[in-house]
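Appendix C: a fully annotated inverse folding record. The material below is reproduced so that readers can follow the format used throughout the book. The structure is listed first as tokens, followed by the designed sequence.
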């Protein structure tokens, strides 16, 4: 998959034939080529908020008003296919790191339908949410009977369905 930041950048692959939203069709010597234009920050923010990511942190990412810490850089370097576990004290930036990591994957068309679940704020985990997602983000895990049961279900599900799982905990 080819991802570009602008139509101008897509021209390096050939002549632009048609632009349909974020999809650019380019004529090359070998035929037509699909090139995807990176979605805008506004489009990515809408997807994140629609999938229950914390609005305050999505806005912070959208404004770009943050420092890229060593732990954030490390998380961003982890390939999408790998599972990610973040642990640290309350307020250390775990949730924000999950927001930035997911936004980056959305911008690069590596995920299309992320699902965010907070063990603190989300009352129930719906199977439909898991089924429609290609990235499952679990946040605020603390051990309790309910949370352990949910975590166990999601870990087995993500493994069986080959879905990417990101988990954050204060442990």
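Designed amino acids, in order:
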């Amino acid at each position: 998959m080819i991802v570009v930041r602008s139509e101008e950048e897509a021209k390096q692959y050939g002549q632009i034939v048609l632009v349909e939203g974020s999809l650019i069709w380019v004529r090359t010597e070998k035929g037509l080529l699909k090139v995807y234009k990176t979605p805008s920050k506004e489009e990515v923010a809408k997807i994140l908020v629609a999938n229950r990511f914390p609005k305050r942190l999505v806005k912070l990412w959208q404004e770009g008003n943050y420092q890229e810490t060593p732990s954030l850089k490390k998380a961003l370097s982890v390939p999408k296919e790998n599972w990610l576990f973040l642990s640290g004290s309350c307020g250390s930036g775990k949730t924000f790191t999950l927001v930035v990591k997911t936004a980056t994957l959305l911008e690069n068309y590596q995920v299309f339908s992320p699902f965010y679940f907070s063990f603190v704020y989300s009352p129930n985990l719906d199977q439909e949410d898991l089924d429609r997602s290609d990235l499952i983000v679990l946040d605020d895990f603390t051990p309790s009977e309910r949370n352990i049961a949910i975590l166990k279900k999601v870990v087995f599900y993500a493994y069986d369905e080959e879905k990417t799982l990101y988990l954050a905990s204060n442990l």
